[in-house]
Amino acid sequence: MSASSPLKDFGLHYRLPPSFRDAVIVTRELGIRYLWIDSLCIVQDDLDDWRKESAQMDRIYGMSFLTIIAAGASHSQGGCFVPRAIRFPPVAVELHPADSPGPFFR
């Protein structure tokens, strides 16, 4: 995937770390309106903020339509897409807004 024009228009494709940029691109390509990135939405190294926000995680993730994780990365510079030895055949997935628990689609 390449950076879509809205990212380029605001110069975000240069300023966002690869993992965040990948998540934004996937979200936009799927037509999903909202994206929660923990490390942007929770003040890092602030235990009080973490306690406040982590108390809401069940609601945030429980209401999500899709969860994207950068499991192969140890930090935001790693990106969501890393080479791996195991190859799986592509799978077509249909997304239906009516299946979503919230107003996440355009």
UniProtKB/TrEMBL annotation:
Cross-referenced Pfam families: HET
Residue ranges of domain Heterokaryon incompatibility in the record: 13-87
InterPro entries assigned to the protein according to its UniProt record, in alphabetical order: HET
Name this protein carries in UniProt: Heterokaryon incompatibility domain-containing protein
